[in-house]
Design goal:
549 residues; Serine Threonine Protein Phosphatase 5, Tetratricopeptide repeat; Glutamine Phosphoribosylpyrophosphate, subunit 1, domain 1; 5-stranded antiparallel β-sheet; 10 strands; 59% helix; 10% strand; Proteasome_sua/b; cytoplasmic vesicle; transport
Amino acid sequence: MSVDRLFETRNAFYIGNYQTCITEAQKSATSDDEKATKKIFLYRAYIAQKKMNIVLSEIPEGTKDVALKAIRRLAEYQNSAKRTKVLSEIESELSSPIKDETYMLLTSSVLLDANKPEDALQVLYECTSLECHAATVQALLRMDRVDLAVKELKKMAEIDEDSTQTQLATAWVNLALGREKLKDAYYIFQEQIDRHGATPLLLVGQSTALILQEKFEEAESLLQDAQTRDSNNADAMINMIVVSAQLGQPSEVVNRLIAQMKDSHPSHPWTRSFVEKEEVLNKIAVESTFHSVIDLGQNHQNTMSRGSSAGFDRHITIFSPEGRVYQVEYAFKAINSTNLTAVAVKGVDTACIAVQKRVPDKLIVSDSVTSVFQLTPTIGCAMIGMVPDSKFQVRRAILEATQWRYKHGHNMPAEQLAKRMADLNQFYTQNAEMRSLGCAMMMISFDDEDGPVMYRVDPAGYYRGVKGISLGVKQQPANAFLEKKMKKKSELSKDATIQLAIEALHNALGVDVRAKDLEVVVVSKDQPKFTKLTDDEVENHLNAIANRD
């Protein structure tokens, strides 16, 4: 078996050890092919180090070498002023891409950076090298096609299961799969570090696996190591922004990291996306109130001019003579569309929500069906109503809480979040362009000053603090049961609070419930984080209720 004289050069590049790659590539070559390959990796390593001037000065603009032309174009693409020109050239070549491995790889790299993974796949279609397969995996993951990425990974394993590229691609796929695969991804990066030494690329990969497992302190340590090795590493900065925010660092620390990212990497996809969203949010904040008033006046004028045989305007944003907005009433009726019920109870130092769980099809994985969601580490909610509307509401609540933390430097209080979501719901009733959401929210949290708090937010734009409430198709019998029980029990311990919520739900449904039929979430003084009880814990409470009765 012949020795791969280029292994050290290639491998150093793949793990992000670019200086070693440059050193190895500058050693004497024994053949023209080896010399050409070393030159390609030499220039790619210089580009990775942001030393584009070296590449541009050594590769003439009119070079006829396809590989060197692709390298020069990649270097030019790093200049934001030339991005449009480079992308235009590439797009003109997509109909008949050049069959050269280096061309395919570097062209796909440009297209991925420009957020065009479909075009990148088109370029890579006929490229069969291991590095091309790895680039294909990246493109598929960018498209959220993890299933196809897994298939591509199997092809790589058939070629060389133990290669660095296959191992790193396996780690990328495991990060996308999540859950138990996150540990596997972490250990793959660790194995590469043990074999070849730590690099910013490997350390950032490890930190990503830890962040997804919510091990933020450990991730921070790895990122500090990565930044010691490369203080300007973009991926390390991005992960450090996430970690700093999650660890509750002062807002000026997070803002400083974001400013550094904007200054050092203004053309990075993350920076471009962040700036775009910043501009959109600022525009919405300035214009939303103004446009809502103008649109409401125009809608009223247009609909009133048409008239109605019923003697009043039926437009969805206009009150009937009885003072009713039918669209809002329809939204309240839609809350019962899922035939689910939820009960929330607040005790002395605990707030609990018990939600009926129903899996609509035997072919659906039970764990993928849920009505409870974590909004911040200490705030969570249960959503009852139309599932798409509920998920939209949850995503907006998470966005509002994140923006509050970014602006104020601390977590958003539950009352402020409930008030904000109610304001948004009320805004949806003012314009025909956005209907009222067919869902209602129960929110619980443990506040440092007020202890356990609980709020209901409805489609009409009304929120209120409660100590016991039910939502859903069986809310009337559940509320009646709570009123009766909570008159007798003014103070509830943690276990009593949880058991009262479960008991009220059981009583309202009128059938025996099992642990797998319930979702129970809790916040308490001893455990202020939003926590979902396991099936065994729920079963213990069900047994306690049965024994007491």
